[in-house]
């Protein structure tokens, strides 16, 4: 059995004061299916409270009126426990204004800020594609994050980066088909990745919890572990037995208003305490699927 995750106790969230669907950048979005503002706020608050009840802490960043997707805070930037943050460089222009507020927040809270490209020029990187797992920073690339950004992460932060190429349009960020559960277990949805990356998963996750199609498209992997609690937008009876068998308390929340924008529990929360261990190789190490 794996050890509890070293991270996931401190989060940044963005209250959905201006959450709406103004454009379509993923298969779940439709401008004809708008979220209910009051219900979205109620669901968001239930998630914030669940994190606190599980022993975590939450800091809140005001949402920009011109950034309706900013509520999906996971994509504001990659934050490390040692006080570094890699600001996201969003692929789609409508989301890029979020970075202005994110940069101000990170620097105002003591984070040293890095970017994959100066003044928005450079490879796209979206932090919903990155997780610390095992001895590495696991990063998805393809739909949103570009492969060149992985090299930048490895070099600038002197860490081991393991890339997984996402090949399914419905799983456009890594936080949809991949969810660390403890030091050896992770939920994975192999069809989200190309063949080479599926083979790489075997070397990354010692104890995979493989999701069915139905589980994956219920946003099941878009969950988060806080201490001994796993907070989920959906959980089948099968998975409930798996997680309780691992000693976790399962909390299932209704977050369906946020599914309209293509995200759920993990997308709404940005962990601020990823432990990033340096590697001995100067300039880091990048491992891509062959």
From TrEMBL:
GO biological process: L-arginine deiminase pathway
Hydrolase is among the record's keywords: yes
Matching Gene3D superfamilies: L-arginine/glycine Amidinotransferase, Chain A
Protein name per Swiss-Prot or TrEMBL: N-dimethylarginine dimethylaminohydrolase
PANTHER family in alphabetical order: ARGININE DEIMINASE (PTHR47271:SF2)
Organism: Kribbella solani
Keywords: Hydrolase
GO MF annotation list: arginine deiminase activity
């Amino acid at each position: 059995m794996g050890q509890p995750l070293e991270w996931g106790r401190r989060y940044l969230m963005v209250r959905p004061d201006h959450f709406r669907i103004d454009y379509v950048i993923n298969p779940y979005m439709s401008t004809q299916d708008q979220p209910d503002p009051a219900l979205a706020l109620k669901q968001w608050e239930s998630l914030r409270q669940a994190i606190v009840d599980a022993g975590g802490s939450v800091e809140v960043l005001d949402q920009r009126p011109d950034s309706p997707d900013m509520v999906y805070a996971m994509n504001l930037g990659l934050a490390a426990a040692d006080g570094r943050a890699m600001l996201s460089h969003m692929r789609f222009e409508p989301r890029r204004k979020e970075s202005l507020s994110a940069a101000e927040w990170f620097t105002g809270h003591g984070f040293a800020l890095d970017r994959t490209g100066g003044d928005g020029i450079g490879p796209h990187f979206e932090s919903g594609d990155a997780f610390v797992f095992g001895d590495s920073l696991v990063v998805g690339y393809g739909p949103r994050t570009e492969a060149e950004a992985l090299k930048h992460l490895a070099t600038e932060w002197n860490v081991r980066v393991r890339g997984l190429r996402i090949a399914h349009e419905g799983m456009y960020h890594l936080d949809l088909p991949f969810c660390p559960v403890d030091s050896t277990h992770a939920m994975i949805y192999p069809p989200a990745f190309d063949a080479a990356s599926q083979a790489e998963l075997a070397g990354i996750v010692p104890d995979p919890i493989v999701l069915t199609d139905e589980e994956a498209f219920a946003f099941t992997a878009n969950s988060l572990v806080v201490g001994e609690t796993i907070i989920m937008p959906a959980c089948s009876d099968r998975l409930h037995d798996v997680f309780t068998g691992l000693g976790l308390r399962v909390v299932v929340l209704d977050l369906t208003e946020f599914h309209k924008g293509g995200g759920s529990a993990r997308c709404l929360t940005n962990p601020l305490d990823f432990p990033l261990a340096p590697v001995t190789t100067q300039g880091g190490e990048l491992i891509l699927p062959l």
